[in-house]
Design a protein that fits this description.
The chain contains one helix and six strands, in the order αββββββ. It has one helix spanning about 5, and strands at about 15-25, 30-40, 45-50, 55-60, 70-85, 90-99. The protein has a six-stranded antiparallel barrel with strand order 1-2-3-6-5-4. The relative contact order is 0.25.
Length: about 100
Amino acid sequence: MNQTFDSYSEKRDFIRMRVDADVTLIHAEQVVAAVCLDLSSSGMQIQAPRTFGVGDQLLVRIESDHPALKGLEATTEVVWIADQPDNLQKLGLRILKMY
């Protein structure tokens, strides 16, 4: 586990919803397919097949399969990282702005 995960005091004042949804991450003009594991009104946990750093800003898109529901698009910041097997990372993202 990365030291940034240990030092980040996560706020549990928000209800987290398990999602397991495919997401698109955009960082430095690169598009990365990832999975959103859970979501709250202030942040989300993502599993990604690429290395990011604490402080990186990512644009996150979650498409909606339902025509009446708009998908989610948000600017986020990486606040913690946990390395996983098979070159994956779990990322704690704070939502900075939703569109």
